[in-house]
Specification:
This protein is α/β, with parallel strands linked by helices. The protein contains 16 helices and 25 strands. Bound molecules: ligand TXE.
């Protein structure tokens, strides 16, 4: 085990420099080896409030908030280029701190610069509007930045999720305070110096560390925020939302999911199995759109199940640094326990049949690993309804197309992602149209793009990431009404038919 004194300390990023905020520190572990990687600050309430105050000054200075669109475009584009040139170092950090296979992190991070490029472009091309206002009046609508915005980001895709939020907010001219997850903050902190190199004015992007229950809470309770953007659990949303409401702070929240993977008999069995593996086991099932419910039409079911189990048993769980590893660690010991509890409840209380996996495991005797697991169950059970956020997948036999749609829509309060797999063109449209979910993929899963709005219905959250929707959610709309012909004669004597509105 590495000695604590040998590991680096990574300070907060404030006003364009590393800043020490506290005596207390948090140790970041490598989930695959349980070894400490670094320490980060446990930022105190006073320090959080100082950072927000300095951020307010940065916003008021106008250096970024009133910068030309062309300047925002130039800085974000340059940041994209810098990030693209440094992908290998970010991949290494991301793999170490999340325990996810290097193959996944290479594929995911190679695309992250696109988010900076997309929002840079939106900043440059975004135009206001002129409304058809009655009379000799010109009414312009312009979008202004909000102010100091807080972004609370998670550990499962640390860099992707933080970058998509930062890019949208910065493109719109805001000052951003990011609080990354204490479990995997290292890649996000490194973005501070990268943005500085790209020319972002100091104080425009602040990155502070700490536990959610302390630092995250202090940040969200600060009354001077203009928006809170969270990706995390529903409990976190429920802790933050009342304060945000009292402070009249709008929220975007990207919470959990229980994505159905709807598999129809027009698919060859092998392709249905490929689809299920892809949807379910990326990131060891730790994504908000994990295909955690396989809803399989009965005409496909038996052959599918047999082949699925064989393929899942063959998945290579291993060292995340090894390019041939297919399944890495889960984020923490607590997560291993949670996966085990889901399996136990499914088996003991809900009559579920564990078809493969079901147990904690280790690699070379260490790490937080859980076997890829498939449990046959029925609608309405704990595993069919609730998010595991791990590699424990429910498979449910469904009698018909209508049955699949009914289970997909009614069995859970989440509605973030869903996929429909069929070779029947009409069925694809019919089912996709009836599924109640923020994102529906047809013959795909996990597909994303900076231009494509991302966010759920119901308990999966409010608002959207990505796309023009995200950009606009980081702005406020100002209406300027310019009169060039209506005289203010209302209270003059003997005036008939004057207009006041
Ligand atoms: O998330 P948390 P956790 C879901 C998933 C998972 C569950 C819990 O279901 O099992 O959430 O995961 C910060 N005030 N998702 O516990 O705690 C925290 O420090 C302010 C879905 O890891 O919500 C971190 O930065 N901030 C999701 C961030 O919230 C607080 C990704 C997320 O951590 C806070 C992650 C508070 N009171 C989990 N409490 C997705 N949609 O991809 C915590 N935080």
């Amino acid at each position: 085990m590495t000695k604590m004194s040998n590991i680096p300390h990574i300070s907060n990023w404030v006003n364009g420099a590393q800043a020490t905020a506290s005596a207390e520190r948090i140790t970041v572990l490598n989930p695959a080896t349980e070894e400490p990687l670094a320490t980060v600050e446990a930022t105190t309430q006073d320090s959080v409030n100082d950072v927000v105050e300095q951020s307010r000054r940065a916003f008021a200075s106008g250096t970024w908030s009133r910068a030309d669109a062309s300047e925002r475009y130039a800085v974000l584009s340059k940041a994209a280029g810098l990030l693209r040139s440094r992908i290998p170092e970010f991949v290494e950090l991301e793999t170490l701190q999340t325990g996810r296979p290097i193959r996944e992190m290479r594929a995911q991070l190679a695309r992250v610069p696109e988010w900076l490029e997309y929002f840079a472009s939106l900043a440059r091309v975004h135009e206001g509007r002129v409304t058809p206002f009655k009379g000799p009046v010109i009414n312009t609508l312009t979008r202004l930045p909000l102010g100091v915005v807080a972004q609370i980001t998670p550990w499962n895709h640390p860099l992707l999720i933080a970058t998509k939020k930062m890019a949208a907010a910065l493109a719109a001219g805001n000052v951003v305070v990011v609080k990354p997850s204490e479990l995997a903050p290292m890649s996000v902190i490194r973005m501070g110096s990268l943005f500085r190199e790209a020319g972002l004015p100091d104080g425009t992007l602040q990155i502070i560390n700490g536990h959610g229950r302390d630092t995250g809470r202090y940040l969200c309770e600060n009354p001077h925020l203009a928006k809170i953007d969270l990706t995390g659990g529903i409990a976190t949303y429920q802790a933050i939302a009342p304060v945000a409401a009292l402070n009249m702070v709008p929220m975007t929240a990207e919470l959990g999911g229980k994505a159905p993977v709807c598999l129809f008999p027009s698919l060859p069995v092998d392709r249905a199995v490929q689809a299920a593996l892809f949807a379910s086991f990326i990131a060891s099932g730790q994504t908000c759109v994990t295909g955690s419910r396989l809803l399989v039409h009965q005409d496909l079911y038996d052959g599918f199940l047999e082949s699925l189990v064989r393929r899942v048993e063959g998945l290579k769980v291993g060292d995340p640094q090894d390019p041939s590893t297919q399944i890495g660690a889960v984020i923490s010991r607590a997560s291993v326990t949670r996966c085990g509890e889901f399996v136990e409840r499914a088996r003991k209380s809900d009559g579920g049949r564990v078809l493969c996996g079901g147990n904690p495991t280790t690699v070379d005797g260490k790490g937080f690993f859980f076997e890829p697991t498939v449990v046959e169950t029925v609608p309405g059970t704990d595993l069919a309804r609730n998010e595991v956020f791990g590699p424990v997948i429910a498979v449910i036999r469904c009698a018909s197309e209508d049955d699949i749609i009914r289970v997909a829509n009614n069995d859970t309060a989440f509605a973030l992602g869903a996929s429909v797999w069929t070779q029947d063109f009409a069925q694809a449209h019919r089912v996709a149209g009836k599924i109640e979910s923020g994102i529906v993929w047809v013959n795909g899963h996990h597909l994303n793009d900076p231009s494509s709005p991302w966010g759920g219905f119901g308990e999966s959250g409010v608002g959207k990431e990505n796309g023009q929707e995200a950009f606009e959610s980081y702005t406020k709309l100002k209406s300027t009404v310019i009169n060039y012909g209506i005289e203010p004669t209302w209270f003059d004597p003997d005036i008939q038919g004057a207009r006041y509105g």
